[in-house]
Amino acid sequence: MASSTAPYSAQEIDLANLSLEELWMPFTANRAFKRSPRLLTEAKGMYYTAADGRRILDGTAGLWCVNAGHCREPIARAIAEQAARMDYAPGFQMGHPLQFELAAQITELLPGDLDRVFFTNSGSEAVDSALKIALAYWQAKGQPSRTRLIGRLRGYHGVGFGGISVGGIESNRKQFASQLLPNVDHLPHTHDSARNAFSRGQPAHGAELADELEQLVQRHGASSIAAVIIEPVAGSTGVLIPPKGYLERIRAICTKHDILLIFDEVITGFGRIGAPFAAEYFNIEPDMMTVAKGITNASVPMGAVFVRRGIYDTVVNATEQGIEFFHGYTYSGHPLACAAGLATLGVYRDEGLFERAASLAPYFEDAVHSLRGARNVVDIRNLGLVAGIELASRPGKPGARAFEVFTRCFQDENVLIRTTGDIIALSPPLIVEKRQIDEIIGAVGKMLAQVE
Ligand SMILES: Cc1ncc(COP(=O)(O)O)c(C=O)c1O
Fold first, then answer.
1. pLDDT averaged over the chain?
2. In the predicted model, is pLDDT for residue 3 greater than 70?
3. Rounded to the nearest whole angstrom, what is the distance from the C-alpha of residue 237 to the centroid of ligand 1?
4. What per-residue string of b and e applies to 299-335 under the rule 16 or more CB within 10 Å gives b?
5. Domains and CATH numbers, the chain
6. Burial (CB count within 10 angstroms: exposed 0-12, middle 13-18, buried 19+), residue 41
């Protein structure tokens, strides 16, 4: 034990006597976890250390967020220095230089006139902020009837009431179904394993699914629709890659009817698919983007909304004087997050990590598709450094087979993967080496052969 009265790090905690009961864990089967916990205590580069001392290869960049690898020295140093210099500054009617500098540097990565930045602390907050910005924009523009929001089935936009309303994951909505936002519609999802199974990169079939948007416009009238929000690549529901031509059609329909298009790039942002953002990768300019995760390499919580200049100008210029947008968070643009963000951008830039992701993508693609033919594998899909491996479900037990692969990879193979339902999702840090890709795929392949 350290000399202080309270333990401050995992090293100072008596793990053998650690009580697990008090904590209510998020998105976790609490009882099962507490019966057989999986605890991580340290991280460096591509590896975690588990509580029992094992080194665990990180096949998921934490939760799709540690894009530059763990505990990067420049980022840790920037956070420590900032914590000692100025821990916090109020963000309402006050500012500090780091948040302006980070906003300016980020916009250099963004396409077109997407050059206004609103900071939040998470992806969920970024999504709710973007939805509010859309409503505020149409009010300011003198079209207050534009309030309808359109999401997509199998979309994940975090857990705020706005996010779960436009999101399309039934399990995230059903406990709260009576209190979701009104005036929300959902486009169909684009997953079609009958036509597209084992596609490499963008699948060939499904661009026409975008035409559902045109039908929603016909049904409700464009003058009632504020915005469409979609993940360019749906991550959390199992890595669903957009079919060729689909995003282009969504963009064209939004443009035709003057509907705002929001790309939720919480996962795809900051290099995951081998470009700074999916917007660049697909060469499609949304009107807003939501990000989080990789913005600080997950070292300090942060999210943001990127907004086209015209949207900012419309909202800000609509008010004679005083506050223009009644929204914000105590920790919007927190100094530690900004310091972490600036250092993170530096690491991405200095090490060329987005380009590295692009150059590793073909190797990663071959590696994941080598699992075709493995027991129970019914589909494999990939883009950049993200992949989904879909398994046939056990009768009456959806998710059980993939979850067993996950626990066994962790326990027996020292590899961290992620599962959603019966889909294994892989998204290693962008610093991953080819031999580590082989190790991750080797572990998954071995477990697929063993797990019934
Ligand atoms: C596309 C997308 N949007 C929003 C979120 C929510 O982000 P957070 O968990 O930081 O609130 C996530 C989280 O995975 C996400 O993948």
1. 97
2. no
3. 11
4. bbbbbbbbbbeebbebbeeeeeeeeebeebbebbbbb
5. 10-67+352-450 (3.90.1150.10), 75-351 (3.40.640.10)
6. middle
Structural tokens at position 34: 């507490």
The residue nearest atom 5 of ligand 1, judged by CA position, is: 158
pLDDT at 60: 98
Using an 8 Å Cβ cutoff, are 155 and 234 in contact? Answer: yes
234 Cα nearest atom in ligand 1:
1
> If you average pLDDT over residues 255-267, what whole number do you get?
98
**Distance (Å, rounded) from C-alpha 269 to C-alpha 302?**
13
How many other CB atoms sit within 10 Å of the CB of residue 166? 30
Mean pLDDT of 87-115: 97
Tens of pLDDT, residue by residue over 10-42, are 778 898 899 999 999 999 999 999 999 999 999
Beta carbon of 231 within 6 Å of any ligand 1 atom:
yes
235 lines ligand 1 (CB under 6 A): yes
Given CA atoms 283, 287, 293, 295 in this order, what sign does their dihedral have?
A: positive
Checking if the pLDDT of 1 tops 50, the result is: no
Q: What is the pLDDT of residues 277-315, one digit of tens each?
A: 999 999 999 999 999 999 999 999 999 999 999 999 999
Average pLDDT for residues 57-83, to the nearest whole number? 98
* Helix locations, 141-220, DSSP H: 161-166, 170-173, 193-196, 211-220
Q: How many helices (H) and strands (E) does the chain have?
A: 16, 15
Length of the chain: 452
Residue 266 Cβ inside 6 Å of ligand 1? The answer reads yes
Cα–Cα distance list, 46 to 349, 357, 433, 435 (Å): 19, 14, 9, 12
Confidence of residue 4 (pLDDT cuts 50, 70, 90): low
Q: At what angle do helices 353-369 and 434-450 cross, to 10 degrees?
A: 30
CA distance 97 to 235: 34
Output the CA 159–ligand 1 centroid distance in Å.
Answer: 8
Is 9 a residue whose pLDDT tops 80? no
What CA–CA distance (Å, rounded) separates 404 from 64? 20
Amino acid, res. 399: G
